[in-house]
Write a structure and sequence with these properties.
Bound molecules: 1,3,4-trihydroxy-5-OXO-cyclohexanecarboxylic acid
Number of domains: 1
Strand content: 15-25%
Shape: globular
Order of helices and strands: EHHEHEHEEH
CATH superfamily: Dehydroquinase, class II
Structural class: alpha/beta
CATH class: Alpha Beta
CATH architecture: 3-Layer(aba) Sandwich
Distance between the termini: 15 Å
Helix content: 40-55%
Amino acid sequence: PLILVLNGPNLNLLGTREPEIYGTATLDDLETLCAETAEGLGLAIECRQTNLEGELITWVQEARERAAGVVINPAGYSHTSVALMDAISALEIPVIEVHLSNIHKRESFRHHSYVSHAATGVICGLGFAGYRLALIALSDILEEEDD
Ligand code: DQA
């Protein structure tokens, strides 16, 4: 089964962007970790990043036909995008929302995520490990669906 790992705006700057919050490892490092985790779980993955809201929505729509599950860090669009939430609501496959930082510990405008209304599950505050855990959770969900 194919899992899409989608990263939203500014996550291309990982490693240099507010390292005290997001750490010093890069998006490339993150995607390598995801690929290694997926391989261990017997999942195929495709990692993508975009700064464009519409592009993220198009990728979520495409997941309807292509993927068995989605891991998504919608970054700033989590807190603003009804359109992205609607695209996720239209999916019938499991979607895990991930945030590197604990958004509940930060500014109040980060406490609400539209995407969480539509996600199967949400992980935040665990850094890169959150993506690994999201892939493990998807693997479990897909196995349960199989039996
Ligand atoms: C983030 C948290 C968001 O509030 C922020 O806009 C981001 C990254 C995270 O991974 O912690 O860009 O999604």
